[in-house]
Amino acid sequence: MKSRVLKCILFTLALPLFFSFSQSADAQSSDANASYYFDSGKLENGRMLIPLRSVSEALDSKVTWNQSTKSINITRENTTIFLKINSKQVKVNGEAITIDVPARVYSGTTYVPVRFVSQAFNGKIGWIPSLYEATVELGDTLVRVNSNPGMSRERVMELIDQVNKTTNLSNYPQIRTHFRPYFTDHFINRIVNLDGVKDNRVMVEDFEDAAIHYGLIISQSEFMYAPLVDYIVDREIYLTVENNQYVVKGVKVDVIPYYG
Questions:
Q1: What is the spatial order of strands in the sheet that 71-76 belongs to?
Q2: According to the model, what pLDDT value does residue 32 have?
Q3: According to the 3-state scheme, what is the secondary structure of 131-167?
Q4: Neighbouring-strand partners of residue 81
């Protein structure tokens, strides 16, 4: 089967935040012109840590690493941040500040707490509790980070596989039991009442061929041969978070004839 796919438009960056931050934010209403998404924020002592170099590059900041002192300089416009790995003492334009969680190194990547970095650069911070997602807006740039461990490569492929299975519900005599770990109850009720997802097809592309939009939608597109007219299938899988895990809350499929 020949396949034509929508290649990844993963927004690969974000800035997390104090987990207990009380302000809720709807990043969709932002006036930012550029958006970035990152799905592997790390929580430590209730604070969210972000990958330093990726974030800095997205914000047009310069990062300098000193191997001998295990220290980092971050410069953006007129602001300079100095910090050391595993130290709670940092400096912003020479002024000493104590932070709750020091910079850490995970698998060779330096992570820093988003709250102090964002405040040092005068960024606007938000928190979307239903998505376990933090947002930071800086100028015309919006960055989002998701701290939910369920949005992994393995989980994405699990959800795609389970949506594929809705093409033939007769294979599953216990539909609700089978799909409950992957779908919301509302969506399960819908596919039971409609006997599956309208126009659904088995999509065979792997993780790299899917597109993850804001951690909320998995998009796929495939070219498929047919006896009379070939066609393109576009599918969007809508996600939500339940029990700290991503699940499917809806699916939309469009089948478009291709006359080439």
A1: 62-66, 71-76, 79-84, 89-92, 95-98
A2: 60
A3: HCEEEEEECCEEEEEECCCCCCHHHHHHHHHHHHHCC
A4: 74, 92
